[in-house]
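Q: I'm writing a short explainer about Hsp90 domain containing protein for a general audience and would like to include a description of its predicted shape. Could you first generate the structure from this sequence?
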Amino acid sequence: LKNQKTLEFQAETKQLLDIVTNSLYTDKEVFLRELVSNASDALEKLRHLQSAGSKDLVVIDSDRPLQITITLDEVESSLTIADTGVGMTADELVENLGTIARSGSKNFIAQLEAETSANHHDAGLDIARGIIGKFGVGFYSCFMVADKVQVTTRPARGGPITVWTSDGTGTYELAELADDDETRQDRGTTIKLFLKEEYWSLLSEAKIQEILTKYSNFVQFPILLNGNRVNTVQAVWSMDPKEVERDTYVDFYKYVAQAIDDPLEILHFRADAPLEVQALLFIPSFHSEKYGMERMDPGVSLYSRKVLIESKSPDILPDWLRFVKGVVDSEDLPLAISREKPQDSALIAKLKRVLTRRFLSQLEKMAKKESDKYLKEFYPEYNHFLKEGVCQDFEFQPTLAKLLRFETNKNTSRNLVSLDEYISNLRPEQDQIYYLTAPTREAAAMSPYLEAFERANLEVIFVYTAIDDFVMANLSTYEGRPLVSVEKSDIDLSKFDTKEKEDEDKDETDDANDGSSHDGSSKLSATEAIDVCMWFKDTLGENKVGSCRPSSRLVSSPAIVTDNESGLMRRMMRMVDTSDG
Ligand code: ADP
Ligand code: MG
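A: Of course. Here's the predicted structure. Afterward I'll give you a sentence or two in plain language.
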């Protein structure tokens, strides 16, 4: 070693080191994730430099493959991670590892951005965005498990080899490696951790393999552990959707969802605003909750630049999308994301909104362009989740409502209709959407509540389960039109001109002259009606009968029970009655 000197960490760095070593990560294993991600960034930067192909750029050891090598040494109790990436000069070492809030990646981007804007060279920027670094906490995490760290690095453009050594307290040492030193370093960076005794368990190859598989399985450069390649699965989500074969998707789906089926739907997209995100989401061909199995856990994992942040994250999709499987990657997220940090939670909330919106628009697209698949495969399997969303998720309720499908009294072929279709068939005077709850289609068709609506030639949605009934009550309006149960007492159908209807119900219209009511459905005289009402009240008692009055709504049924304000209550009681049966 020559030109040896001791330098002090920047004051904030000392503080940060303290935090990192003592509390930042509860899961100490993540130091490896941080170092692997740095190595991967360094390789990516080198690849970018090479592909930018400027003529005066000479990369040393250009035949060395771009890879990450991890070795364990039980004798020294050390763990070494080496990459063949860009490496660092002595100045860069001081700047990148001696100070914080000056993330090397951040500077790299600034420089690159200046370069590309000068050269009107757009492609570079895209690639560069892939390596934007965040707040520089990552590297220091190695001091959680090591009491001494040695970084040996040689810039890809050539130049002296620098060695940086520290125990992670106040100072670090910097030296140049002498030309005749036998530990000479090739291009790139080698980081050697001398492990604290309580972490000697990390010297096991199986243990390291397990950590790598968990966090770094999709890193795009080969990771070799004691000479064997660990990461074998491609990060399919980061590929260009145009270039991915269906088989590749299916294999990846089976891998991440631990599934045996073929996915019903694949959604692969990338967005740049309001935040950078790459997502590969799957709808499985079936879900397990319907077999009475327990509630599913979330199925989408969160990555940042191919490195795992959180497996099966509960926060990146709403609860009602728990059947979705896959991977979401956002380079805007720090690896050590924390729910306690408001800016992190804000990012996650933003991400969730982007993903939910995209997912729902994919469903809308399926409903429109592949309606058979939507109605026969997706909807029967997953409609409950959409309905759960309608009841729980105020923000997406209008979008979800568009995705619902119903039988009605008019679609005799049992094709399901959407609320939009229903609205497009409204009668001109109609400003409400009507629905009727009955156990089956047959019961609905025969319901006395339906009579007057049929006569007025109105379409009525049929709902068959207490849950659907509940959904309708929750939704309450669609596109400004109230959803009204036909059981409600104050529905006034008199404005619907029944003559418009084709004249198939002849005897009804004939009856019109037998009373004062214009449509003639009232077959009792006024005094007779009062008698009947009195009889109902006397027989059933005042607390069961709110009011009883003659109605023009009925055609062939003598009487119906209608709802007043306690309607929702009744519906809920019905749900309790039937849901656990
Ligand atoms: P971040 O990766 O978020 O920038 P880190 O603390 O993980 O923060 O790393 C700080 C900086 O140190 C990096 O931005 C990079 O410039 C430099 N660095 C770390 N590891 C390597 C490496 N293996 N090769 C080259 N540079 C590295
Ligand atoms: Mg890092």
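A: For your explainer, you could say: The radius of gyration is 34 Å.
Q: Perfect, that's easy to follow.
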